[in-house]
Amino acid sequence: MSFSISEKADTIIALATPQGVGAIAVIRLSGKDAIKLTNEVFGGKNLEEQQSHTIHFGTIRDGERIVDEVLVSLFVAPKSFTKENVVEISTHGSSYIINQVIKLLIRKGARPAKPGEFTQRAFLNGQFDLAQAEAVADLIHSDSEASHQAALHQMRGGFSGEIKQLRDQLIHFASMIELELDFVEEDVEFASRDDLQQLVEKLLRVVEQLISSFDLGNVIKNGVPTVIAGKPNAGKSTLLNALLNEEKAIVSEIAGTTRDFIEDEINIGGVIFRFIDTAGLRETTDTIEAMGVSRTQEKMKTASLILYLFDLSDTDMVEINRDINKLENLGVPFVKVANKIDKATEGFITELKDKHPDTIFISAGQKENLEALRTNILDLVNLDKFKTGNTVVTNIRHYDSLVKTRESLLDVLNGIDAEITNDFLAMDIRRSLHFLGEITGEITTDDLLANIFSKFCIGK
């Protein structure tokens, strides 16, 4: 989604609120003529004579016909989201009224906005950088406290600030290296190789921290895929229903009733967990159930967390130890959950607590001790780093650029050790700057911008 010069000069229009009938709807315009075009159809004050950040009551008229009574909010350039003239028309939420107003303003000279075009104009006009622009979309789609905080931190420039600091420090040394190339015959050193090495090592530590934060950032943004695994009739479906507080999964005394996956999302402590109730793990001659068991094993390998659920009244210590050994070999974090505590013997509970003290004892059917399970699950996500205000990378594009930055910085260090010439050293530094610049949009292509903003909703 690239734009020509004429397109960037156009006044664009779109519905900024969700489609459908509601109490009100907000129609947004942005562009040099946004106020002028609105004024042509507005019955009320002369909008072109009003101050920025003011709201005006009146009517939208198509000739002599009144379409609706509205409130018009004015944002005069550059004091607006896009840094252009922006108008927001609050109408009644009738689909008919919305369409009439938009069609009327298109006839007057506006054109329909493309997905993300308002935010793209804000970026192109220097309102914020590309990482902040992407955070706008993340904020709109945030569905938990953690994802909201991460998007808000990025939108307000927290992540961009760290990247800018890294880039500014590197630019200084790059300019000194480039300067040395102009004085190569004089054998002058403007940039100390020792100082450069110390700087690059420092930058690498910061980049490594940002890269390592992506695992947590991905969890915050997309949720934690959590598999509930165990024998048939261990109570997996009952546990899913108890956590959801609804009858999502079929519960039956007949073993093997869950043949495929049942998924749903649960918000625990501000983090979204995507729980997956799976087919029971056992040997079976039932072809369909066997397929479910096989797929369960595959799901467990790719999960971020496994709840290993076993029935205290129908499982012995040998079987529990065997299953735990298999889970440890998977290398996926897991929680040992002993179900049906109300049906267990005191002796077995004591033995289990002695050999596996980290076991969580619950009764899914009675909804007993589920809060302890939720707390344990949340602890495994380890939000401490996020809660202390440290920057967390949540965007795969940023992660990819940081990985490439790390590779380029390592090339700089290797070049210093090998005592390569300044022109080759400058190339490696410039490559590092390029990848850092991709994150904030100082280095962009039309294809990159098209890919990013095409994923936005229309009207934002």
Automatic annotation (TrEMBL):
- The residues that hold GTP are 233-238, 252-258, 277-280
Name the enzyme group at the top EC level.
hydrolase
A single Gene Ontology biological process assigned to it is: tRNA methylation
* The keyword Magnesium belongs to this UniProt entry's keyword annotation: yes
The catalytic activity of this protein is classed by the Enzyme Commission as 3.6.-.-
UniProt KW keywords: Cytoplasm, GTP-binding, Hydrolase, Magnesium, Metal-binding, Nucleotide-binding, Potassium, tRNA processing
Domain TrmE-type G intervals: 223-382
Cofactor binding mode and count:
Binds 1 potassium ion per subunit.
Molecular function terms, GO-annotated: GTP binding; GTPase activity; identical protein binding; metal ion binding
Q: So where does K(+) get bound?
A: 233, 252, 254, 257
The UniProt annotation places Mg(2+) binding at 237, 258
State the GO CC annotations: cytosol
Which co-factors does it depend on?
K(+)
Q: Cellular location of this protein? A: Cytoplasm
CDD domains attached to this UniProt entry = trmE, TrmE_N
Subunit note: Homodimer. Heterotetramer of two MnmE and two MnmG subunits.
Q: What does this protein do?
A: Exhibits a very high intrinsic GTPase hydrolysis rate. Involved in the addition of a carboxymethylaminomethyl (cmnm) group at the wobble position (U34) of certain tRNAs, forming tRNA-cmnm(5)s(2)U34.
**In which family does this protein belong, per the annotation?**
Belongs to the TRAFAC class TrmE-Era-EngA-EngB-Septin-like GTPase superfamily. TrmE GTPase family.
The protein depicted here goes by the name tRNA modification GTPase MnmE
